Amino acid sequence: MKPFKNKLAVTIIVLSVAFLGIIIFSVKNGSNSVSSGIGSVVSPLQKIVYKVNDKIKSSVDFFANFSKVKQENEELKVKNSELENQIVEYSALKDENERLREVLKLKDSKNNYDYVGVNIIGYSGGTVSRGYIVDKGTNDGIEKDMIIINYQGLVGKVTQAESNYSVVETILNENMAVSVMVDSTRETTGILRGYKENKNEDIVKVYNLPIDSEIKEGDVILTSGLGMIYPKEIRIGEVVSVETDSVMVMKNAMVKPYVDFNKLEELFVVVPKDKINVKYD
């Protein structure tokens, strides 16, 4: 055992002396061999340390900026929400402007009436087909039998007028009767009523057209003005089908109203300037 320990000690001493000699020789000769030798051992370790430090620095930077990034993200969400609201408001104002422009066209063409704007505040009888309750009445010059329109066409007429509200019955009601004419043929014998049998969509029906009438799908139905109950040539709707009644010797037409009764907004009461009797020219 002692010879082995002695050999190990000698080997260590020899290597140490040799290593020291190399260093002294390198210093005297300005050699970088030791640096290169040591560097070759240290360099991989330096790379590992550098990478670890770089990752730690990146993580620190991320967490340091996270709060700022989060705040900027919240600010962008708020700005985006504001822009979306502005777009919705602009679209609503644009649609309203277009609707009012159509009403103004009607007002310009029929300037012998006043037009009183009203808002729907409820349903009469609980359904659209029965009619609406609007927020103006006799205090605002509204009387029974005055008609109601919107930018799309004929809505109905006032069936009850109180001091601060009125009841409006729509053309969808089968109790309503409107004298109409076919725009393409100018036939004025038609009577329009609500069509109760159709429960899936808003449809009205024109009765009492001549058996030889040339009415066809796509024709426009207008008020005829007969009886002076409705102003002449108020738009009502478009023909979707025509049927022949051989027993009654006449033609009938199914009509899709232009007015969307599920999306009514601005309504106007057409008020004759001479209100002694509610009559329309």
Automatic annotation (TrEMBL):
Entry keyword set: Cell shape, Coiled coil, Membrane, Transmembrane, Transmembrane helix
Coiled coil: 66-110
The keyword Methyltransferase is annotated on this UniProt entry: no
Domain called Rod shape-determining protein MreC beta-barrel core: residue spans: 120-270
Residues annotated as transmembrane: 7-27
Domain of life of the source: Bacteria
InterPro entries listed in its UniProt record: Cell/Rod_1, Cell/Rod_MreC_2, MreC, MreC_beta-barrel_core
Pfam family for this entry, one: MreC
Entry function: Involved in formation and maintenance of cell shape.
NCBIfam families: mreC
Family, per entry: Belongs to the MreC family.
Protein name per the record: Cell shape-determining protein MreC
Protein species of origin: Clostridium hominis
Higher taxonomy: Bacteria, Bacillati, Bacillota, Clostridia, Eubacteriales
Gene responsible for this protein: mreC
